[in-house]
Write a structure and sequence with these properties.
By secondary structure, the protein is α+β, with helices and mostly antiparallel strands. About 30% of the residues lie in helices and about 30% in strands. The protein is elongated.
């Protein structure tokens, strides 16, 4: 049995000193999905929902029941296949996902047999209350189960307003001691907003949204130091956190706080100023948000 998954929410961090930089890139498993002729299996959906209603044992615990999943015909058309970009595969079947998990198994002849195989090793996935939709399909003895949460329409204020919201959240986080992974940080002085860093952050978010690709390197091969200089910021130390998929500034900041590398940038007492911005990729309706925050110390 093989499982592949993709959680769309992701982020990355980068810090630079003059002539030196160290990227810390988040990792994610890859969901390989495609479209093929397959039979939707309502029996398997019913068995999974029955399990969610009365979970029984899961990794030695007895979790509480969770709501049933809604059968989605589009998800039933998603199949595992080589060389397929996951977001595009989901879009082709008309489903815009904020989070998705695929379970693939072969060999069982009936839905009950599939349930016997996946119940224990995938109990946490099957009982995840974040998922609301499901598609289950088969080709001969190959079975694909897709659990997903749809991407909701995005409505955010002006980037300048959102940038200040991020600044406030970051300064609130810096106001108390914090452990970032294995590194302990004391409370740090609040950061000041800088328009040039805000412009650099906004430009990079727009670039990522236009490409639908999260990366520290811009489409022109620029790194954060080049972009900050281009925006008019003469820097001695520069850092950047990026993220994609979080629908609100608070969730973006919380994600950075929860990630050791991002948290270390955010808590770094050496930084004195910050700018931030976001952009929405409208190519991926109803929209997908790309976030950038840039930290700096002037020369």
């Amino acid at each position: 049995m093989k499982k592949t998954s993709r959680t769309i929410l992701t982020s990355s961090t980068l810090t630079m000193r003059r002539s030196r930089f160290t990227p810390i890139l988040a990792t994610a498993a890859v969901l390989i999905a495609g479209s093929a002729q397959a039979q939707t299996d309502t029996r398997l959906v019913a068995l999974i929902n029955a399990y969610r209603a009365a979970p029984g044992d899961c990794e030695g615990a007895r979790p509480a029941p969770v709501p049933g999943l809604t059968s989605n015909t589009a998800l039933g058309r998603v199949r595992i296949g080589p060389g397929t970009f996951p977001e595009s595969a989901l879009e082709r079947v008309g489903y815009h996902a904020a989070q998705v998990e695929i379970i693939y198994t072969r060999g069982a002849q009936e839905a009950a047999g599939v349930m016997d195989v996946i119940r224990q090793p995938y109990c946490r996935v099957l009982l995840n209350a974040a998922y609301s939709d499901i598609g289950a399909s088969r080709q001969a003895d190959e079975w694909t189960i897709v659990l997903a949460r749809p991407l909701l329409a995005i409505a955010l204020p002006d980037p300048g307003v959102v940038g200040r919201d991020i600044l406030d959240a970051v300064n609130a986080a810096r106001a108390v001691p914090r452990t970032c992974g294995e590194r302990a940080f004391g409370a740090a002085q609040p950061l000041a907003w800088d328009d040039a860093l805000g412009a650099a952050a906004l430009a990079h978010s727009r670039d990522m949204a236009a490409r639908r690709h999260m990366a520290h390197q811009g489409s022109d091969s620029s790194e954060v130091g080049t972009r900050a200089t281009r925006a008019g910021y003469s820097w001695r130390l520069i850092g950047e956190n990026i993220a994609a998929g979080q629908p609100t500034p608070r969730e973006a900041v919380n994600g950075w706080i929860d990630s050791p590398g991002h948290c270390a940038n955010l808590m770094n007492p050496g930084f004195t100023e910050m700018g931030a911005g976001y952009a929405i990729s409208r190519a991926r309706m109803p929209g997908f948000v790309y976030w950038t925050q840039v930290f700096g110390v002037r020369r």
